[in-house]
Amino acid sequence: MKDKMKQFEIKSHDGPGRYGKLGDLETPAIINKDDFSIADDESSAYDVEKEIAQWSVNQTIEKAKLVEDKEIAVIQGSKYIDLRIKCLKELEELGYNGFIIANADDLLLHPRDLIDLIVALRQNMKSSSYLIFPFAEAQFIPLLAYMGVDAFFDDIGEYYSYINVLMSPTKNYDLETYNLYEMSREELEAYNRNTIDFVLREVREHMKNSSLRNLVEERSATSPQYASALRILDKNYSEYLLEYTQVY
Asked: What is the domain-level CATH number for residue 174?
């Protein structure tokens, strides 16, 4: 049996990034699905007709209404930001305070869409609500946290262990090609979980020291996708970034 809904409290900002508490956890946090009540949803692909995405949102809302312990729900809406915001607001009205961003893997392949969506959600959600990016590779976590994502699921490390991929803070290594270690699947899963844990500790400490932007810029050198996303964020959302930036 799960505990009652975990309250989210913001302690400080570093840019739009939020250092805070989710129950007993420091955020940005790595979380286990089994520790939360997650509402069923009706998923749809990312690039679909708007009518299908609308149906997905409507069905997700109806399923969310049936849950007794309203804690975490899924923001559907495919590539349509207006539908994503509609889904968010209706789920908040039902009493949910944790929100999983659906189609996360597709969004990582579309940096402009990713940034437009996260900024729009953050600008429209309550300060007591928190965002979850379900499938984030370690090198993307600093940027996602900088934009305002508050939590990440812990099962990505397990997933990569099954395909013999080692996660580091800056890139992933296929151990069939890069024979860095001889590990069992279980050992690799533990290693990957530790990598995610380290990156989130790193992010939180940078937030406390108001230096997360420095870490984000360092990581942007690890991936063309990452660098592209940061350029789009800076160009299109400078006011959003400055809103929470401390002035000395």
From this structure: 3.20.20.105
| 2 in a structural domain | no
Span 31-48, average pLDDT: 94
**Owning domain of residue 213:** 8-237
1 found inside a domain: no
- Backbone φ and ψ of 155, nearest 5°: -85, -5
Q: What are the structure tokens assigned to 166, written together?
A: 């080692």
Residue 78 CB neighbours (<10 A): 23
Residue 201, in any domain of the structure: yes
Cα separation, 10 vs 127, in Å, equals: 8
**CA-to-CA distance for 103 and 53, rounded, in angstroms?**
12
CB-based contacts of 23: which residues, under 8 Å, 6+ apart? 3, 6, 7
pLDDT bucket at 245, cuts 50 / 70 / 90: low
**Cβ(117)–Cβ(108) under 8 Å?**
no
Distance set, CA 8 to CA 39, 43, 99, 116, 130 (Å): 18, 26, 12, 24, 7
Q: How many CB atoms lie within 10 A of CB 108?
A: 20
Residue 105 in contact with residue 46, Cβ under 8 Å?
no
Angle, CA 196 vertex, CA 192 and CA 197 arms, to 5°: 110
Residue 25 lies in a domain: yes
Over the chain, what is the mean pLDDT?
94
